[in-house]
Amino acid sequence: MMKDFNFYAPTRVVFGRNAERQIGELVKANGAHKVLLHYGGGSAERSGLLNVVRQQLKDAGLQWCELGGVVPNPLLSKVYEGIDLCRQQQVDFILAVGGGSVIDSSKAIGYGTGYDGDVWDFWCGRQPEACLPIGVVLTIPAAGSEMSSSCVITKDEGLLKRGVNSDLCRCRFAVMNPERTFTLPPYQTAAGATDIMMHTMERYFSKYEDMTLTDSISEALLRTVKDAALVVMEHPEDYRNRAQIMWAGSLAHNDLTECGTEKDFATHRLEHELSALFGVTHGAGLAALWPSWARYVKERHLSRFVQFAVNVMGVENDFAHPDETAEKGIRAMEDFYRRIGMPTNLRELLGREVTSEELDLMADKCSRGGTVTVGAMEVLDRKAMREVYEMAAV
User: Fold this and answer.
1) Tens digits of residue pLDDT in 3-20
2) Cα separation of 252 and 131, whole Å?
């Protein structure tokens, strides 16, 4: 069975060593007059990238204001600050310089600037009706937000981490220079590669199994990122492999690998509670949870896990024992995580045991008090969520 699909990917990608030279004309071509330059910590400043961006805006005759300080797992409080600034300065374009956290913060600001109510309404069921145009200068390949319709924000009060999807927030352009990723710390590189792969795996593990071309694209992407990640962990300035990872990050989350399938995203939803509650890196949280989710559902979706084991992880197919082939694929994925320094369970992630109360809290928050489910290939209710968390905690 194949699912009907509607593929929409409007983001212009400017990719390569000299990509930054086009920032000014790209912003201007989108009708901007006053730009919000939005970024995270000090790395963009220290690297000189922000000065390059400022000069590009100046040469294009554009005015701008700035808001830095975005943190991983971007906070609603910073979004409110950005909305106020955009209204005061009459901003008509947002330029995000950074990774997924900065981009998602920019999207949320874009939603809220022209909205009369509380922007958090959009993470509570209301659909956005407008968004300021957004451009990206990408520095961290991981989230894929530069080409996705997704925006994930954490509400400071209660540490509620939620996502909303709308084509309105899709970025007008993404400037991507793999050289800007050479100085990423190994842990951040590994977590980014994990997130990229998971964006495709969340679509690959689907009950719709008849879109052979999409499967082949997904498998090639997963193999490529896996191989490239192992290289750049040893050789961080390997341009070719950094480029593979950066481009894969965009393709993994622009819905290409969802054409004809249906995204599951149970592991992502489960992980949101981890990073909200404990402040862990999102990619590391995904690595700590995925093996347990996989083992929880694999017996009921054995053929898909066998295909993954053979075509992605290079496991020899034991036709007489498909369950063993599937399990070897999961173990091979765990081995890969360990090779790049990622955890494979919650104890490794947090450096301690997880309490029963914490497991209950995450299941309650993920299920919103037992009122919602997660997943599509297999739907998980609160009880199932708690079981996956518990498996990951052992």
Assistant:
1) 999 999 999 999 999 999
2) 23
pLDDT of residue 2: 85
The residue among 284, 270, 272, 274 whose CA lies nearest residue 378 is 270
Phi, psi dihedrals of residue 94, rounded to the nearest 5°:
-115, 130
User: At 136, is the secondary structure helix, strand, or coil?
Assistant: strand
Residues 33, 124: Cα–Cα separation, whole Å: 32
Residue with tokens 């989350």: 253
- Token readout for 232 is 């750049």
* pTM exceeding 0.90: yes
Q: What's at 122, amino acid-wise?
A: F
Long-range contacts of 356-363 (CB under 8 A, 24+ apart): 358/277, 359/386, 359/389, 359/390, 359/393, 360/386, 361/273, 361/277, 362/270, 362/273, 362/274, 362/277, 362/389, 363/389
CA distance 362 to 385: 9
Cβ burial of 90 (10 Å; 0-12, 13-18, 19+) is exposed
- 94 CB-contact burial (10 Å; exposed 0-12 / middle 13-18 / buried 19+): buried
